[in-house]
């Protein structure tokens, strides 16, 4: 069995998986064939799990503490108790990154209700499980803009939108819908006609009056990168390059009339949006 797994995972595509930690066996493996989780883990068959990620750049983990805080906040909302303290989780992730010898890539990690059975309730799960993986990949700033559409996939409720759970089927459908229509991604609009977020990124706008505006965080996953963007953007306000930075409700009409629009996420980190529902944003460049 091990030989077959190793043969299947010897392909070039799997060499990006540099190292994995699993609390099931309490250690790190560098063999992609052994980077597996139990089928009866409730994260697999019930979606009872949360996750987060951090960028590994030039040998440094970027903004890990902010991502880890959000990770544990998501776990609390999902009613999953971490088997480790925040400090221990942090140490595991740093040791995993070091063991991988990967200098540029992403660190992804999950907390699950754990394995035990195939029922709905987690009460028979042995204990919550923690998994993490280092993926080698390159990053570059996107200079060319993309087109987007308004999603017809129902928007998540605030409870689930603000929790980074593994239940990403609405996000997947939203992304697929955009690709089927020749766009890069789609964007959710709430019942009040205000902007929410993209399938895996926040949205930001720069008005014609040089105001940087970000949608209110009450029913979206307000990202760590957006929070960092606000800090950096306020320095541009001090230099007179922006008029102000504001977090508030943004209507579709106002958003489409902006001078600039962009996706914001940790792995992008900024992606210009130049067209929305076949309408150019700003000058369309």
Automatic annotation (TrEMBL):
Pfam families: Aminotran_4 (PF01063). GO terms for biological process: amino acid biosynthetic process; carboxylic acid biosynthetic process. It comes from the Eukaryota. Its cofactor is pyridoxal 5'-phosphate. GO terms for molecular function: catalytic activity. Keywords: Pyridoxal phosphate. SUPFAM superfamilies: D-aminoacid aminotransferase-like PLP-dependent enzymes (SSF56752). Belongs to the class-IV pyridoxal-phosphate-dependent aminotransferase family. This is D-amino-acid transaminase, chloroplastic.
